[in-house]
Fold this protein.
Amino acid sequence: MPDIFQAILILLFGLLIGIGIIYLSDVLPAHRKLARPGCTNCSLPFSWWKYVSLKSCIHCGQKRKLRDWIVLLSSPLLCLLVWFLPPPKIPAIIAMILFAYLGTITIIDLEHRLILHITSLVGTIITIVVGTFWLNNDGIIGKSFVSTLLGGAGGFGILFLLYIMGIGFSKLMSRLRKIPIEEEAMGFGDVTLATVLGFLLGWPRIAVNIIGTILLAGLFSLVYILIRLALKKYRAFQPIPYGPFLIITAIVLVYLA
């Protein structure tokens, strides 16, 4: 009986997390701060009850995104999974909050190709604290704190170098093809995300994370190109968001630690 009651509480907590992810994914790209949510079609505000219950807009009738329903239904189940299978050395509740933050980053990056400064700032605070305690294997906080800072510096340095190389590659291909390439291969938001994940993973795990990201993104790009070629809809130099691949690889490393 206590286990059933516990599971119900976790499911309710997961439901709140799902609502929070939906809210932040809607509001932060539009306002860069916490604000009252509005319709994505007509921009008129929702009442809070209609918003959290995923009702259609009363002004224009616009239905809520499929993404909202997926997040709301999957978050309680994922929280339940994390509760019973938490990552090593991270309390389940902390892991849920951390994964909710990473989930919000993923949705915003997929929908808007943005990794916002405000989310990176909040993430820096979260991951420095969590990373310092997670990397603390010998009881010396100062040592794990240094490893956390080195991870952040390593993540920034490696991704910043790739970011600069991406800009150079885009300019070179633009000259060779004599066609302007406006989209960058990698945005500066990816650099800040790698810094945040570096604080969590420490050094040298962040280097492993970046290598895994490149391989995973490369595999995805290959499959994507083959599918687009088969559909005769391929367009050269179409960028993909790197944030989700950084996050997926980081979560795998957290569980493998």
In short: The longest helix spans residues 141-177. The chain is about 70% helix and 0% strand. The mean pLDDT is 89. Residues 114 and 244 are 11 Å apart (CA to CA).
